[in-house]
């Protein structure tokens, strides 16, 4: 079979706009620390379809009696609140890129204490429509303080006892699988663990019950052929190798078959797991690059094991103008990050109503980890003796907001295609535009969080979220996530923002 034609593996769901590629994340490190899983539209329109407010159970809310003059009235879903003016700026896993450029929040006027000279101005915003930042007022039109973000963050803080329990449960199994792969006479004997993911980025929220583990395998002398100008998906070919190639059993013609390689990888893991009590391998999901383990005891935990090819060559041309951190972390840091290897995971590209099973997708989860680890302009930002910022706190709150809405509407389909990677991608863009450490002072947590919410809403509104590493990839294109789903998420986020985020009080 010609691998380029692709095998239809099932009806493909509409692609979501989530940040560009799937980030494979890893687990390992200190024995006490398991790795964890990777696992909008603009303001709701006043005339949005009328409906009763639906809770997690799907039941209608009882309408409240008219509020007295002394009692503030809760805004209905879809109602617009007064906001500061929005300005145009920038905004990525789809293949269709709308004409409108992605939103980028405009940097506010310089505050006192800024490192920039008083008369120096930022470059003008690129896009002509996109989220911007208005006056320093709450996006809902009310003064900050209507809800307590610090109290929410305290609830989200991972408890040491839970971390230790998860580590004692997950790490021995991962170590066993790694030893088995290395010891058996297979094509995967040179695999190694790569530690990535929100746990190691220190932005994991709630409980440590989902983790990602990346098993990386270095490959050399390969040639990449971009799939349909996607920027993210590639066919992998090997150059001539007189000594033979250990991965030759997975060749489909001259193409390294992602489906064959993933199938063999999954088979080995499944065989090893059969002898481990209270651990099973979840049924394969169409188009997913992960082999998912389900731990039943002492508590339910899921671990996605992702096979990744490590490539030590220049990054693909589609990433040339990506990773726009020059004004945030500096040109030297960007150059250093781009000298690191990149990864390819066996993620199938959409092809008609099915999938192209031989494609591999770019992954930069290790770079995302490095960015979040050293996230400030100051080298001592958030260190023990350094000034603290609220960047990571904002990301935690954004992730938690989406998670809670997905739980609340778990019986509906509109939010199925949204994931934390969309939130992380939008957050990186806000950091790019609001690059000064003084833009993220801890005392301004509520304002900074609302700036992130505003940006994400505008991305939903214009249906464009630019992949942070692959600018040509729109994560909110309609072939990724349909317009109705984006409007639904936008409505619900507006409702939460206008009413003090009641969904946070249900966690």
UniProtKB/TrEMBL annotation:
Q: What is its main location?
A: membrane
Q: Which residues form a coiled coil?
A: none
Domain (Mab-21-like HhH/H2TH-like) spans 390-494
**Which Pfam family, any one of them, does this sequence belong to?**
Mab-21_C
Q: Which residues form the Mab-21-like nucleotidyltransferase domain?
A: 199-373
| GO cellular component terms listed in the entry, alphabetical order | cytosol; nucleus; plasma membrane; site of double-strand break
Q: Which UniProt keywords apply?
A: Acetylation, ADP-ribosylation, Antiviral defense, ATP-binding, Cell membrane, Chromosome, Cytoplasm, DNA damage, DNA repair, DNA-binding, GTP-binding, Immunity, Innate immunity, Isopeptide bond, Lipid-binding, Lipoprotein, Magnesium, Membrane, Metal-binding, Methylation, Nucleotide-binding, Nucleotidyltransferase, Nucleus, Palmitate, Phosphoprotein, Transferase, Ubl conjugation, Zinc
Give EC number(s), comma-separated.
2.7.7.86
GO terms (molecular function) for this protein are: 2',3'-cyclic GMP-AMP synthase activity; ATP binding; double-stranded DNA binding; GTP binding; lipid binding; metal ion binding; molecular condensate scaffold activity; nucleosome binding
This chain belongs to the protein called: Cyclic GMP-AMP synthase
List the source organism.
Suricata suricatta
